[in-house]
Write a structure and sequence with these properties.
Blueprint (H helix, E strand, L loop, with lengths): L1 H21 L27 E4 L8 E5 L1 H12 L5 E5 L3 E4 L2 E4 L8 E5 L2 E4 L12 E12 L3 E3 L3 H4 L20 E17 L6 E4 L2 E11 L10 E4 L1 E12 L5 E3 L3 E11 L5 E6 L8 E12 L3 E7 L6 E16 L1 E6 L15 E15 L3 E6 L7 E11 L6 E5 L4 E7 L5
Parallel strand pairs: 1-3, 2-4, 3-6, 4-7, 5-8, 6-8, 7-9, 8-10, 9-10, 10-11, 10-12, 11-13, 12-14, 13-15, 14-16, 15-17, 16-18, 17-19, 18-20, 19-21, 20-22, 21-23, 22-24, 23-25, 24-26
Bound molecules: 2-acetamido-2-deoxy-beta-D-glucopyranose (2 copies).
The site of one 2-acetamido-2-deoxy-beta-D-glucopyranose has 6 residues, from strand 14 and strand 16.
């Protein structure tokens, strides 16, 4: 009984966190990008930089001792230092529960967290009442680097997950993301691995000027809701030279996201690169300015996807381009689905999401389904200015087809499958 009560209280806490997260918020003001032009790839100690080792705060690298307090004390020492400082997580396995890396920091330059070893999440889900695992908040300037790994130990949580993506009510309990960036500006997350998160690998929200490079995110294809990079309410996000093998979307971009570039991403298994779901929340701000270039999708269920709910809220996506994308055995390489969770034979009122100014250029490779280009737009707001240029998708020896509803695509160059009649 007592256990059940605790569980209910926990559910409520999660629900509140999730509900607040779902509310109408604006994207942050970006401000200047402090890393522009600088070689962020190079990591060298600046003169006089203080190295704060979690071991000197009592952390033990045995994978069993709970290092949460040591990490919190170490973070505080580094973040509140007036001289330049970095938090070092050395070789070994460090067991850490849910915790905040809260700013603002006082270091003159961006604070560095250097992870060499492996940070391991505790498995007792009752410790995650704040919603996520490692939460980076209110930080202007941070580098998370070092070649180390974040192990979310998600396996036990996956059995109990609630499917928030396909839950049309906004009261669902999302599983904790491994790395959660909230109100972070000027962040570099580079050369980091994430395995088996309970929820998303990385969640970026209310943030601006974020670079994500050389990341290796992995989880089993069967793990539920383990999005690689989930982005909302953020602007100027650059993702490059990374790989995502996971159970859900490789990258998902939802409301109030602008100026995202994705370059040289390898994705699969997983559900592909996704804009949406859109039209899920009241007062959604649009997704605008997304450039996806030189990416490979392998064995994913979707390639380049828009998903929008029918019969719900208004929303929009515009100025989106996909260029030089290779598909290998992708089920739905190009898909606009404005009948999300409602097809086939959707009888609901049309989606109120407006999709316009989208360009697909040089998309080639192989698919596993008869309909390689599947574009089902809203009857009320047909898609506008959707351009397909040099599309070359094959299904073994048999020809593939296209489907179009409420869209008049602009076709240029090669079209395999053939254009819609
Ligand atoms: C989006 O990117 C462009 C080009 O890099 C830049 O001029 C613009 O200010 C950015 N928008 C925001 C909201 O930061
Ligand atoms: C698309 O591919 C063609 C032929 O390989 C190439 O000439 C062209 O530059 C590519 N376009 C873009 C935008 O990358």
């Amino acid at each position: 009984m007592a256990v059940a009560k605790v569980f209910v209280v926990l559910i409520l806490c999660f629900a509140i966190v999730y509900y607040v997260d779902a509310g109408p918020r604006r994207r942050p003001v970006a401000g200047p990008d402090i890393y522009k032009g600088k070689n962020v790839a190079k990591d060298s100690l600046s003169p006089g930089e203080k190295v704060v080792n979690v071991m000197s705060f009592g952390a033990k690298p045995d994978g069993k001792f709970d290092c949460t307090q040591a990490f919190m004390d170490g973070w505080r020492a580094a973040c509140k230092s007036n001289v330049q400082a970095r938090l070092l997580i050395p070789q070994g396995r460090f067991l850490v529960s849910s915790m905040f890396f809260a700013g603002p920091c006082l270091t003159p330059e961006p604070i560095t967290i250097q992870v060499v070893g492996t940070v391991v999440a505790t498995t007792d889900i009752s410790e995650y009442e704040n919603g996520e695992w490692l939460m980076f908040e209110d930080i202007a300037g941070i580098k998370l680097i070092g070649g180390g790994t974040f192990d979310g130990q998600g396996k036990s949580a996956w059995e109990f997950h609630q499917d928030c993506e396909s839950d049309p009510t906004n009261t669902c309990v999302r599983s904790p993301s491994s790395l959660y960036f909230n109100k972070v500006t000027n962040g570099v997350i580079q050369n980091i691995k994430s395995v088996d998160p309970k929820g998303f690998h990385i969640f970026v929200t209310n943030s601006a000027n974020i670079r994500l490079r050389l990341l290796k995110l992995s989880a089993p294809a069967t793990s539920p809701n383990t999005d690689g990079l989930h982005i909302s309410h953020s602007t100027n996000v650059k993702i490059s030279k990374s790989s995502v093998e996971t159970g859900d979307d490789c990258v998902s971009m939802i409301q109030a996201v602008s100026n995202v570039t994705i370059n040289r991403l390898k994705c699969g298994p997983g559900h592909g690169i996704s804009i949406g779901s859109l039209g899920k929340y009241p007062d959604e701000q649009e997704v605008n300015g997304v450039r996806v270039k030189s990416c490979t999708l392998t064995g994913t269920t979707n390639g380049l996807r828009f998903k929008a709910w029918p019969d719900k809220y208004p929303g929009a996506a515009s100025d989106i381009s996909f260029t030089d994308i290779t598909m290998e055995n992708v089920k739905n390489p190009i898909i606009i689905d404005q009948e999300y969770q409602c097809s086939p034979n959707c009888k609901k009122k049309p989606s109120l999401v407006k999709i316009k100014d989208v360009a697909y250029t040089n998309i080639s490779g192989t698919t596993t389904s008869q309909i390689a280009v599947d574009m089902r737009c809203s009857k009320q707001f047909p898609c506008q200015n959707i351009k397909l240029q040099n599309i070359d998708l094959k299904l073994g020896p048999t020809p593939v087809g296209s489907r179009c509803a409420n869209i008049k695509p602009i076709y240029v160059g090669i079209q395999r499958p053939p254009a819609c009649p």
